[in-house]
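Could you join me in thinking about how sequence relates to backbone shape in a protein? We need material for that, and I hope you will provide a protein of your own picking. Once you have written the record down, we can walk along the chain together:

…
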Amino acid sequence: MAKKSGGRLVSSAGLVNYYDSEDRRAIHISPVSVVVAAVVIGAAVFILNALFPVA
């Protein structure tokens, strides 16, 4: 059998490498703001369901 050249697989078994972007034009959102937004949206949905039940 012939040896394969190179250390990586050709297809990488469907895995994709993701790299951190250091672009200053990219949108940067802190994890705290994401959690706060999720809590606010969840509270709004809860309140609207209490005020306007779907019966």
Observations:
- Residues 29-54 form one domain.
- DSSP finds one helix and no strands in the chain.
